[in-house]
């Protein structure tokens, strides 16, 4: 029986169990003289019985599916001739893949008779597994359903029990997120440790040279690259700084205008428009940066350069891929982020404070400056920090608009590179996962993660502290 | 059951009693207020005399706050709110389109139902208004304004050692007195109070009532209250509102002992509201 059919059957079984449990509780209630003699409503008895057969059956199905293949694989190894069993792990797995493909009916492969024989046995194993699974799942479905049905008693506290199950389910969902995070952190951490075994931590964090060219063959010249990450971080900071210079004032002013000055008609139009801005995929911003803004800056500066030359001032070195272009576009991208967060914070300032200020005869701008902004400041700082961490982690725009030359500079007209750009370039292409070059991406990722985590941590704490003040 | 003396609201044609006085500080004529399509105040005419304390009472939702907020144009902050009629402060039309609301609100101050000190120090709370209006040239002048305002609000002794601590750290009653100090720091001529004691305990309430009594020597005060004892204790005249109409205005004593209108009587005897 196919998996999907089994799944449907389990669902069906659970539904039937629900109805059985419900009708049994109704029948019991009738004998006792009304639903109020039951501890819980009939629906809870049904739900409890259904959950009791649904959860174990689904768990069984999931576990079986998870381990099915690897167990069959282990058995298949036993069928292999002695010499093949002792192959290196990679070759062994290649061989097993071939066998599985043959078993799966890929006819283009030329199968030796003995491989064909093993493949046949694998096929029969798979069939057996499937039958076993169906049998076990279906029988436990029936048994559990009956058991759940028999548990329906007037004094049984089904309502509380359903509540608890629901809570455990919710808990499970949230732990999933936590485990994923932990998993990501550890996978990045372990790869980074491998990197730091090759390149010392101090060289990485304090070095000012970045040219991650390791040799593909060991006899190549210049086989050891330089892994000093400082230019990358300064590049990131430069671009983020430009972005914040654009986004913070604009976003904040937008928020102030929308929450304090704009009348309803304007708000209704502008707010969704800002949200649209936030919904544009970053790739599109990348196009905009690379194709529109960067050439524009270049042309503008070219004109400036010509006019400067006539005063015999040294030429400006204008690169097509300037940090300025990427920073500008990134800033525009972050505006809605800053404005909607600040808008929330400003709206959370109680109306009574505004009334108090207006009641004393202050104008709107005085109220904004002297009452609303000071009251909202911690929240706004939090919003800005969140925006910074967003800017630091942004990849697409910089990949498209920024070069890959790791230059240690504060000149926004030069091309720089950022941490995220380097990570992508390091990982694109065919590289083994144990060269310093690829591992460097993990180390960069780790540092980036630590930085944004720290920023978010502080930002959220500030926002939270601020919320407590007024709630 | 009582025999039904409550007349139909449509029978209220005009205000009974003495809504108009000779030496009026503020005088309102035929004031209508609309929230969008909905009318909240119907043709109210009322005078508020110089240095008078006038109490406004009436069942919840009858438009007391709405009317009060017309007197310093606080209703302007509500987008859908429209006010028509004549409202004059010392003969000057306060809804004149050429009139600047900012100085108006400095002349007609307001104290709100819930104490709303700014999240600033006690000193800065009181100094807020004078700073905006440039009332003090030097630091010493400001210190003096702060001290006299706090003294008038009866708060000075309690806070003189902690002027630079946050105003939000005071008790509810102290906060409300701080808000009163903040209001009188800009030397308004009229003070509007919308249920200033409803968030306070009886002792804090008694303090504020005492304060209102003292303030009435220098200021004209309009106070909205739900407590009839409070109205009786602090006010000279009492205005009774009902469903957006001004039913009766009379000497406070008369309103609470022998009201002219049956609706007023029904309300003060607690038959509805
Ligand atoms: N911002 C507003 N928008 C729309 N309608 C409003 C608004 N404020 C008040 N109203 C309406 O105007 C009427 C009068 O309200 P108002 O707040 O003046 O009553 P009140 O006498 O102060 O009542 P309370 O004693 O409960 O404070 C009510 O019907 C109310 O629903
Ligand atoms: Mg009110």
List the SSEs and their pairings.
The complex is a heterodimer of chains A (471) and B (273).
Chain A: H1 3-32, H2 42-79, H3 82-85, H4 89-103, H5 113-150, H6 158-198, H7 201-206, E1 210-211, E2 226-227, H8 230-261, H9 264-279, H10 282-309, H11 323-348, H12 351-359, H13 364-393, H14 396-401, H15 419-427, H16 436-470
Antiparallel strand pairs in A: 1-2
Helix pairs in contact in A: 1-2, 1-5, 2-5, 2-6, 4-5, 6-16, 8-11, 8-13, 9-11, 10-11, 11-13, 12-13, 13-16, 15-16
Chain B: E1 16-17, E2 24-35, E3 38-49, E4 53-57, H1 64-70, E5 81-89, E6 92-93, H2 101-107, E7 108-111, H3 122-133, H4 139-152, H5 156-159, H6 172-184, E8 190-194, H7 202-215, E9 220-224, H8 228-234, E10 237-242, E11 245-251, H9 252-257, H10 262-268
Parallel strand pairs in B: 1-11, 4-9, 4-10, 7-8, 8-9
Antiparallel strand pairs in B: 2-3, 2-5, 5-6, 10-11
Helix pairs in contact in B: 3-4, 3-6, 4-6, 6-7
Bound molecules: adenosine-5'-triphosphate and magnesium ion (MG).
Going by helix content, strand content and strand pairing, the class of chain A is: mainly alpha
Binned strand content of chain A: under 5%
Corresponding CATH superfamily of the largest domain in chain A: MetI-like
Number of helices of chain A: 16
- Roughly how many Å is the radius of gyration of chain A? 32 Å
What this model shows, in words?
The complex is a heterodimer of chains A (471) and B (273). With 471 residues, chain A is mainly α. Chain A folds into 2 domains: 3-156, no CATH class; 210-470, MetI-like (MetI-like fold). In chain A, 77% of the residues lie in helices and 1% in strands. Chain A has 16 helices and 2 strands. Chain A has helices at residues 3-32, 42-79, 82-85, 89-103, 113-150, 158-198, 201-206, 230-261, 264-279, 282-309, 323-348, 351-359, 364-393, 396-401, 419-427, 436-470; strands at residues 210-211, 226-227. Chain A has a two-stranded antiparallel sheet. In chain A, α10 crosses α11. Chain A is flat, with a radius of gyration of 32 Å. Chain B is α/β, with parallel strands linked by helices and 273 residues long. Chain B has a domain at 9-116 and 191-268: P-loop containing nucleotide triphosphate hydrolases (Rossmann fold). Chain B is 33% helix and 25% strand. Chain B has 10 helices and 11 strands. Chain B has a 7-stranded mixed sheet with strand order 1-11-10-4-9-8-7, with helices on both faces. Chain B has a 4-stranded antiparallel sheet with strand order 3-2-5-6, with helices on one face. In chain B, α3 crosses α4, α4 (139-152) packs across α6 and α6 (172-184) packs parallel to α7 (202-215). Residues 64-65, 194 of chain B line the site of magnesium ion.
